[in-house]
Protein backbone atom coordinates (compact mmCIF):
# COMPACT_ATOMS: atom_id res chain seq x y z
CA UNK A 1 0.00 0.00 0.00
CA UNK A 2 1.31 3.46 -0.89
CA UNK A 3 2.13 6.05 1.77
CA UNK A 4 -0.85 8.10 0.62
CA UNK A 5 -3.22 5.15 1.05
CA UNK A 6 -1.73 4.32 4.47
CA UNK A 7 -2.25 7.90 5.57
CA UNK A 8 -5.82 7.83 4.33
CA UNK A 9 -6.44 4.60 6.23
CA UNK A 10 -5.24 6.14 9.50
CA UNK A 11 -8.06 7.41 11.73
CA UNK A 12 -7.99 11.19 12.12
CA UNK A 13 -5.99 12.50 15.07
CA UNK A 14 -8.01 13.76 18.01
CA UNK A 15 -7.33 15.44 21.32
CA UNK A 16 -6.21 13.16 24.11
CA UNK A 17 -8.91 14.59 26.36
CA UNK A 18 -11.60 13.48 23.89
CA UNK A 19 -10.18 9.93 23.76
CA UNK A 20 -10.00 9.70 27.55
CA UNK A 21 -13.56 10.98 27.93
CA UNK A 22 -14.71 8.16 25.66
CA UNK A 23 -12.59 5.54 27.45
CA UNK A 24 -13.88 6.20 30.95
CA UNK A 25 -17.28 7.72 30.09
CA UNK A 26 -16.65 11.07 31.73
CA UNK A 27 -16.92 14.74 30.82
CA UNK A 28 -14.20 16.47 28.80
CA UNK A 29 -13.23 18.55 31.88
CA UNK A 30 -12.88 15.41 34.01
CA UNK A 31 -10.76 13.86 31.27
CA UNK A 32 -8.49 16.91 31.37
CA UNK A 33 -8.15 16.49 35.14
CA UNK A 34 -7.10 12.86 34.70
CA UNK A 35 -4.49 13.88 32.14
CA UNK A 36 -3.14 16.86 34.10
CA UNK A 37 -2.96 14.63 37.16
CA UNK A 38 -0.51 12.32 35.38
CA UNK A 39 -2.90 9.38 35.26
CA UNK A 40 -2.95 8.89 31.47
CA UNK A 41 -0.34 7.19 29.29
CA UNK A 42 0.06 7.07 25.53
CA UNK A 43 1.91 3.98 24.30
CA UNK A 44 3.17 3.47 27.84
CA UNK A 45 4.45 7.02 28.37
CA UNK A 46 2.67 9.44 30.70
CA UNK A 47 1.32 12.49 28.87
CA UNK A 48 0.08 15.48 30.87
CA UNK A 49 -1.17 17.72 28.04
CA UNK A 50 -4.92 17.42 27.28
CA UNK A 51 -4.31 18.99 23.83
CA UNK A 52 -1.94 16.17 22.83
CA UNK A 53 -3.09 14.57 19.56
CA UNK A 54 -3.55 10.82 19.26
CA UNK A 55 -4.74 8.50 16.51
CA UNK A 56 -3.79 4.80 16.65
CA UNK A 57 -1.68 5.00 19.82
CA UNK A 58 -2.71 2.97 22.85
CA UNK A 59 -4.22 5.26 25.49
CA UNK A 60 -4.57 3.93 29.05
CA UNK A 61 -5.90 5.45 32.26
CA UNK A 62 -4.30 4.32 35.52
CA UNK A 63 -6.74 2.17 37.50
CA UNK A 64 -5.86 4.24 40.59
CA UNK A 65 -6.71 7.51 38.83
CA UNK A 66 -8.34 10.14 41.02
CA UNK A 67 -10.22 13.34 40.31
CA UNK A 68 -9.18 14.89 43.62
CA UNK A 69 -8.14 18.51 43.25
CA UNK A 70 -4.49 18.97 42.30
CA UNK A 71 -3.02 20.87 45.22
CA UNK A 72 -0.30 23.53 44.88
CA UNK A 73 3.18 22.35 45.86
CA UNK A 74 6.25 23.85 47.51
CA UNK A 75 9.74 22.87 46.37
CA UNK A 76 12.91 23.01 48.49
CA UNK A 77 16.16 23.43 46.57
CA UNK A 78 19.75 23.06 47.80
CA UNK A 79 21.08 26.00 45.81
CA UNK A 80 24.73 25.83 44.77
CA UNK A 81 26.84 29.00 45.16
CA UNK A 82 26.81 31.21 42.07
CA UNK A 83 23.08 30.95 41.33
CA UNK A 84 20.58 33.78 41.84
CA UNK A 85 17.83 32.58 44.19
CA UNK A 86 15.11 34.97 43.04
CA UNK A 87 15.81 35.43 39.32
CA UNK A 88 13.26 34.01 36.90
CA UNK A 89 14.49 31.35 34.42
CA UNK A 90 13.94 33.76 31.53
CA UNK A 91 16.48 36.19 33.01
CA UNK A 92 19.43 33.88 32.38
CA UNK A 93 22.53 35.49 30.85
CA UNK A 94 26.28 35.47 31.41
CA UNK A 95 25.94 37.40 34.67
CA UNK A 96 22.78 35.75 36.03
CA UNK A 97 22.19 32.03 36.58
CA UNK A 98 18.66 31.57 37.97
CA UNK A 99 18.57 28.85 40.61
CA UNK A 100 15.02 28.07 39.47
CA UNK A 101 16.41 26.52 36.28
CA UNK A 102 17.66 23.66 38.47
CA UNK A 103 14.07 22.63 39.21
CA UNK A 104 13.97 19.81 36.70
CA UNK A 105 12.93 16.16 36.78
CA UNK A 106 16.58 15.09 36.57
CA UNK A 107 17.43 17.00 39.77
CA UNK A 108 14.64 15.55 41.91
CA UNK A 109 16.16 13.94 45.01
CA UNK A 110 15.93 10.16 44.76
CA UNK A 111 15.13 9.80 48.46
CA UNK A 112 12.41 12.48 48.57
CA UNK A 113 10.30 11.36 51.56
CA UNK A 114 7.18 13.32 50.58
CA UNK A 115 5.59 10.62 48.42
CA UNK A 116 4.32 13.33 46.05
CA UNK A 117 3.83 12.21 42.45
CA UNK A 118 6.01 14.38 40.24
CA UNK A 119 4.06 16.31 37.59
CA UNK A 120 5.17 18.82 34.96
CA UNK A 121 2.66 21.32 36.32
CA UNK A 122 4.66 21.45 39.56
CA UNK A 123 7.34 23.50 37.77
CA UNK A 124 4.88 26.18 36.62
CA UNK A 125 3.83 29.41 38.37
CA UNK A 126 6.41 29.10 41.14
CA UNK A 127 7.08 32.05 43.43
CA UNK A 128 10.64 32.45 44.71
CA UNK A 129 10.80 33.42 48.38
CA UNK A 130 13.37 34.31 51.08
CA UNK A 131 16.43 35.84 49.35
CA UNK A 132 19.89 34.27 49.63
CA UNK A 133 23.22 35.73 48.55
CA UNK A 134 24.30 34.60 45.09
CA UNK A 135 27.67 33.52 46.46
CA UNK A 136 26.03 31.45 49.20
CA UNK A 137 24.55 27.96 48.97
CA UNK A 138 21.78 26.21 50.81
CA UNK A 139 18.03 26.14 51.25
CA UNK A 140 15.84 28.13 48.83
CA UNK A 141 12.04 27.83 48.68
CA UNK A 142 9.78 27.99 45.60
CA UNK A 143 6.03 27.65 45.99
CA UNK A 144 2.72 27.56 44.11
CA UNK A 145 0.84 27.96 47.39
CA UNK A 146 -0.13 31.58 48.10
CA UNK A 147 -0.45 30.76 51.80
CA UNK A 148 3.18 29.62 52.01
CA UNK A 149 4.35 32.64 50.01
CA UNK A 150 2.44 35.02 52.26
CA UNK A 151 3.78 33.48 55.45
CA UNK A 152 7.38 33.58 54.26
CA UNK A 153 6.91 37.22 53.24
CA UNK A 154 4.87 38.57 56.13
CA UNK A 155 6.77 36.67 58.84
CA UNK A 156 10.23 37.38 57.41
CA UNK A 157 11.06 39.66 60.34
CA UNK A 158 10.33 37.04 63.01
CA UNK A 159 11.20 33.78 61.23
CA UNK A 160 14.60 32.44 62.26
CA UNK A 161 17.14 31.29 59.69
CA UNK A 162 20.11 29.06 60.43
CA UNK A 163 23.24 29.65 58.38
CA UNK A 164 26.66 28.01 58.61
CA UNK A 165 29.47 30.44 57.76
CA UNK A 166 33.02 29.24 57.16
CA UNK A 167 35.66 31.88 57.92
CA UNK A 168 39.44 31.90 57.55
CA UNK A 169 41.54 30.87 60.56
CA UNK A 170 40.58 30.51 64.19
CA UNK A 171 37.95 32.75 65.78
CA UNK A 172 38.71 34.31 69.18
CA UNK A 173 35.81 34.07 71.68
CA UNK A 174 35.73 37.85 72.02
CA UNK A 175 34.85 38.16 68.31
CA UNK A 176 31.77 36.00 68.83
CA UNK A 177 30.79 38.10 71.81
CA UNK A 178 31.11 41.29 69.78
CA UNK A 179 28.85 39.91 67.06
CA UNK A 180 26.27 38.69 69.58
CA UNK A 181 26.16 42.10 71.25
CA UNK A 182 26.27 44.24 68.09
CA UNK A 183 23.06 46.27 68.17
CA UNK A 184 23.39 48.93 65.51
CA UNK A 185 25.08 49.84 62.23
CA UNK A 186 25.55 53.51 61.34
CA UNK A 187 22.90 54.40 63.89
CA UNK A 188 20.36 51.89 62.58
CA UNK A 189 19.28 48.94 64.77
CA UNK A 190 20.40 45.47 63.74
CA UNK A 191 18.16 42.39 63.97
CA UNK A 192 18.90 39.99 66.84
CA UNK A 193 21.78 37.63 66.09
CA UNK A 194 22.97 34.49 67.84
CA UNK A 195 26.34 33.16 66.68
CA UNK A 196 28.24 30.18 68.07
CA UNK A 197 31.33 28.19 67.13
CA UNK A 198 30.41 25.09 65.15
CA UNK A 199 33.96 23.84 64.52
CA UNK A 200 37.45 25.30 64.44
CA UNK A 201 40.88 24.65 62.97
CA UNK A 202 44.05 26.45 62.02
CA UNK A 203 42.98 27.12 58.43
CA UNK A 204 39.27 27.77 58.93
CA UNK A 205 36.41 27.78 61.41
CA UNK A 206 32.67 27.30 60.99
CA UNK A 207 30.20 29.56 62.75
CA UNK A 208 26.51 28.88 63.27
CA UNK A 209 24.36 31.97 62.81
CA UNK A 210 20.73 32.01 63.94
CA UNK A 211 19.06 35.23 62.80
CA UNK A 212 15.63 36.80 62.52
CA UNK A 213 14.92 39.60 60.08
CA UNK A 214 18.06 38.78 58.14
CA UNK A 215 18.73 40.74 54.96
CA UNK A 216 21.27 40.32 52.17
CA UNK A 217 24.73 41.46 53.23
CA UNK A 218 24.04 41.35 56.97
CA UNK A 219 26.33 38.42 57.80
CA UNK A 220 29.09 39.84 55.61
CA UNK A 221 28.78 43.14 57.47
CA UNK A 222 28.91 41.49 60.90
CA UNK A 223 31.96 39.43 60.00
CA UNK A 224 33.75 42.40 58.46
CA UNK A 225 33.20 44.46 61.61
CA UNK A 226 35.23 41.94 63.64
CA UNK A 227 37.82 41.20 60.96
CA UNK A 228 36.60 37.79 59.82
CA UNK A 229 37.08 36.69 56.20
CA UNK A 230 34.15 34.66 54.86
CA UNK A 231 35.07 31.59 52.80
CA UNK A 232 31.59 30.13 52.30
CA UNK A 233 27.99 30.32 53.50
CA UNK A 234 25.24 27.72 53.58
CA UNK A 235 21.65 28.20 54.76
CA UNK A 236 20.40 25.08 56.54
CA UNK A 237 16.99 26.12 57.85
CA UNK A 238 14.16 28.60 57.38
CA UNK A 239 11.77 28.66 60.33
CA UNK A 240 11.07 25.03 61.25
CA UNK A 241 11.95 23.61 57.81
CA UNK A 242 15.48 22.37 57.13
CA UNK A 243 17.25 20.87 54.12
CA UNK A 244 18.21 17.70 56.05
CA UNK A 245 20.43 15.60 53.73
CA UNK A 246 19.33 17.18 50.43
CA UNK A 247 22.28 16.93 47.98
CA UNK A 248 23.60 20.13 46.43
CA UNK A 249 21.81 21.08 43.20
CA UNK A 250 18.82 18.83 43.98
CA UNK A 251 15.31 19.56 45.23
CA UNK A 252 12.50 17.86 47.10
CA UNK A 253 8.85 18.54 47.91
CA UNK A 254 7.78 20.14 51.17
CA UNK A 255 6.18 17.32 53.15
CA UNK A 256 2.57 17.53 54.32
CA UNK A 257 3.55 17.78 57.99
CA UNK A 258 6.27 20.42 57.52
CA UNK A 259 5.44 23.98 58.53
CA UNK A 260 7.61 27.06 58.31
Number of alpha- plus pi-helical segments: 6
Which overall shape is indicated by the principal axes computed on the Cα atoms?
elongated
Helical content stands at: 10-25%
Write down how many β-strands occur, each being a DSSP E stretch of 2 or more residues: 16
CATH class of the largest domain: Alpha Beta
Query: Structural class of the helix and strand makeup?
Result: alpha+beta
- Look up the CATH topology of the largest domain: Alpha-Beta Plaits
Strand content: 25-35%
CATH H level, superfamily name of the largest domain:
Pseudouridine synthase I, catalytic domain, N-terminal subdomain
Are there runs of 5+ residues with pLDDT below 50, and where? none
- Rg result: 25 Å
The CATH architecture of the largest domain is: 2-Layer Sandwich
Largest pleated sheet: 9 strands, mixed
Mean pLDDT, to the nearest integer, reads 90
Structurally, the number of domains stands at 3
Multimeric organization: single chain
Task: Describe it.
The chain has 260 residues and is of the alpha+beta class. It folds into three domains: 3-61, RNA-binding S4 domain (Structural Genomics Hypothetical 15.5 Kd Protein In mrcA-pckA Intergenic Region, Chain A, Roll); 74-156 and 247-253, Pseudouridine synthase I, catalytic domain, N-terminal subdomain (Alpha-Beta Plaits), CATH 3.30.70; 160-238, 2-Layer Sandwich (Alpha-Beta Plaits), CATH 3.30.70. Helices cover 19% and strands 28% of the residues. It has helices spanning 3-9, 16-24, 28-36, 146-154, 173-180, 218-225, and strands spanning 14-15, 40-42, 45-46, 53-54, 59-61, 74-79, 127-129, 137-143, 160-168, 184-185, 188-189, 193-200, 204-212, 230-238, 241-242, 251-253. The strands form four sheets. Strands 6, 7, 8, 9, 12, 13, 14, 15 and 16 form a nine-stranded mixed β-sheet that branches. Strands 3-2-5 form a three-stranded antiparallel β-sheet. The protein has a two-stranded antiparallel ribbon with strand order 1-4. Strand 7 and strand 8 form a beta hairpin. Helix 2 crosses helix 3. The termini are far apart. The mean pLDDT is 90.
Amino acid sequence: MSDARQAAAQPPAERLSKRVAELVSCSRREAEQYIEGGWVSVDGKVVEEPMFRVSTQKVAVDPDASLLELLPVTLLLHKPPGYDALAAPGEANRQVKPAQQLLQVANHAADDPSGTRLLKRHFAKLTATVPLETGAGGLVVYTQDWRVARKLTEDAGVMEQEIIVEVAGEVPPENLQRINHMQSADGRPLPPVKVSLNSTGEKSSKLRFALKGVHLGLIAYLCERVGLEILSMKRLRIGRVSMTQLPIGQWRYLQAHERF
